[in-house]
Amino acid sequence: MKDLIQINGVKKVYQSKAGPIHALGPIDLNIREGEFISIVGPSGCGKSTLLLLVGGLLEYEAGQIFINGNLVNKPQTDIGIVFQTPVLVDWRDVLGNVLLQIEMRGLKKEVYIEKARNLLRSVGLAEFEKRYPFELSGGMQQRAAFCRALIHDPPLVLMDEPLGALDAITREQLRVDLEQLWLLTKKTVLFVTHSIPESVQLSDRVVVFTPRPGQIAEIIEIDLPRPRTIAVRESAAFQQYIHQLTSIFMNFGILRDTVSTNQQKAVVGEE
After folding, report:
1. Per-residue model confidence as pLDDT tens digits over 104-145
2. Which of 111, 210, 229, 246 lies 20 to 30 Å from 259 when distance is taken between CA atoms?
3. Which of 257, 225, 219 has its CA nearest to residue 39?
4. Model pTM?
């Protein structure tokens, strides 16, 4: 597989009243066509920033990003984006929300109607195409958002914690649905998550970020069969990957097995 994305020495610094904040980088990362890549790291380490940089929605201070050999120096139109919240239009039904992107691009809606229905069918929303967002659960709304991101057949989909706002059971089911959708479409996916099990379940490779400024601490290739069924997720190999990732964050001091003595005193009101 050829590289679809090349990230070379990219760095991002935000300006604030208190002075510059070095949020990210330098980052060097190549992502192959058709890969599902997860970025995992602590809050504030620049995971979402990297997604916005790849999408051309932020400017970087140093380095370069290429998508399919083209320099990213402006907002990219040939991508799909899914955010933590579905951002559906209240006055359009599900089918209309999926097709909204087609209309905004000036494409002929009637050419894409059947494709939209096929996408909705693939995520279990065939019977809900005429329902409005307020009639759907959070998980169903996010499935519709997945379809909207894919309707124009983009080579790259950026996902910024798309399952983060969902309850645990819905999130678990959507992981399965998302993997199935990816297996059907084989899009290149750059996926941000705080969940270690989620990254192992979905990814070909997991990119681990350090605390701010976010840099790549390690890249772990996930060699597990697909689809990642319950049997796969309960396997010793799956658990080993979780242990490996957990150990990295424990070494950072982000995860701890015990609470320090000072923290215990704070809880009970002692000094």
Report:
1. 888 888 899 999 999 999 888 999 999 999 999 988 999 999
2. 210
3. 219
4. 0.88
